[in-house]
Amino acid sequence: MLENITTAPPDAILGLTEAFRQDPRPNKINLGAGVFKDEHGATPILASVKAAETAILAEARTKAYMPIAGDPAYRQLVQEMVLGAEHPALRARRVRTAHTPGGTAALRVGADFLKKACPQAAVWLSRPTWANHRGVFSAAGFAVREYAYYNHAARSLDFEGLKTALRAVPSGDIVVLHACCHNPTGVDLTAEQWAELAALAAGRAWLPFVDFAYQGYGQGLEEDRLGVLALAQACPEMLIASSFSKNFGLYQDRAGALTLLASGAAAADAAFSNVEIAIRVNYSNPPAHGALIVTRILTDPALRRQWRGELDAMRTHITGARQRFVAALRAHGVPGDFSFIARQQGMFSFSGLGAAQVQFLREHKGIYMVGDGRINVAGITAANLEYLCQSIAEALS
Ligand SMILES: Cc1ncc(COP(=O)(O)O)c(C=O)c1O
């Protein structure tokens, strides 16, 4: 039975990490997967996480199962982080949250739930988007369509194209939006654009499914809620997939959450009972460790302060890396205006490098980036900046 199956292609992003690992060149650079790196190119455990983890391990008394939807304290903390503790939807008791293994499982559980709730709907993704969005929603059985997002020539948001596309989305379809730090472009909507988009969503009655994988990496923890809050004000129903992989650095511990807003408390309960079934048949109940860390940090005032400082430092480091990169490209006489890189938000930048240049950099220089020219800006360090810019200059000449 297993002899006739053909080999699947490697994952576009994680496959790159594997190829990088096997590359023997000492000056190789990995600008592929979205993992934060400090000025030494390391992905350290946050000090707040280490402290929380130590306390949790000392106090742990059981490995009994978590509830299907996870620990209630964690779920409430997530709601407060995503919407703000005073949000009217929380007071109206029409918000439900499930702890999921990372943001990917939040997307998949949400997708499975929606396939049951609205089986005829199509799912709309930005063009371009994180490659796994198509994989997740297709695997859940959805037809996947695209809406315009990025203007390659202007290296900016194609807001007119986006509105035209989303005005044509049929009522009852599902639109996936990036809350902030759009992956892969780094280009986000302004407050005015979010307000317009939210009005459009409400008017057309499509369902927003917001991917919130980088809360705190854009402008700040509260500031990055902009889009979520605009949509929550305009639309009675929405889904939000949170990931704590980046903002707590918990990549391998798989901490995330699916939050749903329904029109009222009873509708929220009914919907959530189906979310729990989607979880039960997928992985039964979530892994505890990452969520225990998040809960500990968010409920301990000193740890929370420490974590906020560490999160701010990660964001500032990336902003600095963007500016240093733009200046160094200019200093190396690399043709073109790269100032747009400093205006983008989050870990990623659409560098504008084409497939041939990406391939040249990988084969001849040991510099790895995603095929569409997406680079993880956090991978640029003082030690590799010179080599990177020289190599890009060569690739472009
Ligand atoms: C846009 C986007 N959504 C979701 C995820 C998934 O995050 P997690 O690792 O928590 O599953 C990522 C991770 O890279 C991402 O970039």
How would you describe this structure to a colleague?
With 397 residues, the protein is α/β, with parallel strands linked by helices. It folds into two domains: 14-45 and 303-396, Aspartate Aminotransferase, domain 1 (Alpha-Beta Complex); 65-299, Aspartate Aminotransferase, domain 2, CATH 3.40.640.10. It contains 15 helices and 13 strands. It has helices at residues 14-22, 47-59, 72-83, 88-91, 102-117, 131-139, 159-167, 191-204, 226-234, 265-282, 289-299, 301-331, 340-343, 355-365, 385-396, and strands at residues 29-30, 95-100, 122-127, 143-148, 150-151, 156-157, 174-178, 207-212, 238-243, 256-261, 348-350, 367-368, 374-376. It has a seven-stranded mixed β-sheet with strand order 2-10-9-8-7-3-4, sandwiched between helices. Helix 2 packs antiparallel against helix 12 and helix 14 (355-365) crosses helix 15 (385-396). The radius of gyration is 21 Å and the shape is globular. The mean pLDDT is 95.
Q: Which features does this protein show?
A:
397 residues, alpha/beta, Aspartate Aminotransferase, domain 1, Aspartate Aminotransferase, domain 2, 2 domains, 7-stranded mixed β-sheet, 15 helices, binds pyridoxal-5'-phosphate
